[in-house]
């Protein structure tokens, strides 16, 4: 679903219409702030999860819009073993399109218990490295998401082991939870990790009252904090390709992929100057609702922020929620050529 002025972006005069759209929705100030120099090419990590069944047609049509595909295909168990749920169709299509793959590996236990035992911790690192080598992947994305400082030393030890087991040419990225209570030792991790992916989304989500998914003031604050301990050149800014819809007054939110924005949401869409995100109040058969989501305007804002702060790139959660308009935005702003 393409909304508002950004429907123009699909026309042949793409560059002209983007400039007009930016000036029309309050983005010109940030674009000007980023300077007049030609934009440098950003890294674009495209996550993928199996909560969608549609093929990644738009990605295969525009493979140069991203630099890495990070599908959620592996989980670590309590013994350091790996469970795999590889989508062979996506694997073959990505290989055919020559898209580098850095699969996401998460903590299947939800407790990081395997990190507490040196034996299972080393086993996990070795098994991940063996998987990357066997599958000829570009590298790996680590998504353990520790919630507090209990495993800060164990996580650092694991990343050291993983780096030792992998060739130096293989990429290691790690996902950073914005409010982790100090669970990351950036001084150690920075020597082992190629990129830190800031999960700059879900400011409001299922379980909270309605509000922006990634309001710009919140994003700028958490990014600024991370940049005090990590060089900008090693940070990828997370961008949501989705939103949430709440019944008025409820904390029970429904996820709305960008490519599934409803006609009612689109019809009542309003751009928030305060939060630099789109929202809508609308009626349904079950009652009034309010939705916040990252529209093309919001995605564009995050890309411009990454450029302004000279970050390594951006990371999209997730590419299964994209459509052709998203891919065209990436191709234009990132500077890739099809």
Automatic annotation (TrEMBL):
Keywords: Hydrolase, Signal
SUPFAM superfamilies according to UniProt: (Trans)glycosidases
GO molecular function annotation: hydrolase activity
Entries under Gene3D superfamilies matching the protein: 3.10.50.10, Glycosidases
Domain GH18: 42-338
Listed InterPro entries: Chitinase_II/V-like_cat (IPR011583), Chitinase_insertion_sf (IPR029070), GH (IPR017853), Glyco_hydro18_cat (IPR001223)
Span of the signal peptide: 1-31
The protein, known as: Glycoside hydrolase
Organism: Sulfobacillus thermotolerans
């Amino acid at each position: 679903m393409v909304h508002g002025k950004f429907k123009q972006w699909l026309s042949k005069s793409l560059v002209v219409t983007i400039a007009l759209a930016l000036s029309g929705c309050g983005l010109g100030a940030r674009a000007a702030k980023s300077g007049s120099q030609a934009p440098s090419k950003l890294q674009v990590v495209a996550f993928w999860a199996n909560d969608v069944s549609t093929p990644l047609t738009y990605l295969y049509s525009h493979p140069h819009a991203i630099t890495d595909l990070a599908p959620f295909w592996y989980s670590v168990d309590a013994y350091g073993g790996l469970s795999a749920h590889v989508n062979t169709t996506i694997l073959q299509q990505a290989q055919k399109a020559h898209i580098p793959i850095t699969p996401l590996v998460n903590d299947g236990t939800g407790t990081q218990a395997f990190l507490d035992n040196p034996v299972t911790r080393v086993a996990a690192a070795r098994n991940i490295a063996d998987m990357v080598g066997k599958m000829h992947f570009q590298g790996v994305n680590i998504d353990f998401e520790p919630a507090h400082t209990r495993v800060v030393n164990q996580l650092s030890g694991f990343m050291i082991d993983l780096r030792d087991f992998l060739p130096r040419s293989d990429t290691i990225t790690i996902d950073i939870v914005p409010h982790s209570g100090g669970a990351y030792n950036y001084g150690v991790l920075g020597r082992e990790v190629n990129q830190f992916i800031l999960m700059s989304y879900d400011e409001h989500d299922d379980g909270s009252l309605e509000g922006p998914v990634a309001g710009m003031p919140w994003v700028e604050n958490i990014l600024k904090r991370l940049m005090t301990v990590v060089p900008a050149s090693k940070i990828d800014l997370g961008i949501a390709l989705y939103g949430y819809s709440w019944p008025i007054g409820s904390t029970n939110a429904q996820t709305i992929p960008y490519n599934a924005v409803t006609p009612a949401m689109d019809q009542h869409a309003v751009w928030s100057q305060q939060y630099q995100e789109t929202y809508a109040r609308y009626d349904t058969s079950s009652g009034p609702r309010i939705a916040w989501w990252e529209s093309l305007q919001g995605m564009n804002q995050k890309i411009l922020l990454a450029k302004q702060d000279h970050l390594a790139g951006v990371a999209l959660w997730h590419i299964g929620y994209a459509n052709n308009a998203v891919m065209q935005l990436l191709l234009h702003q990132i500077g890739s050529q099809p």
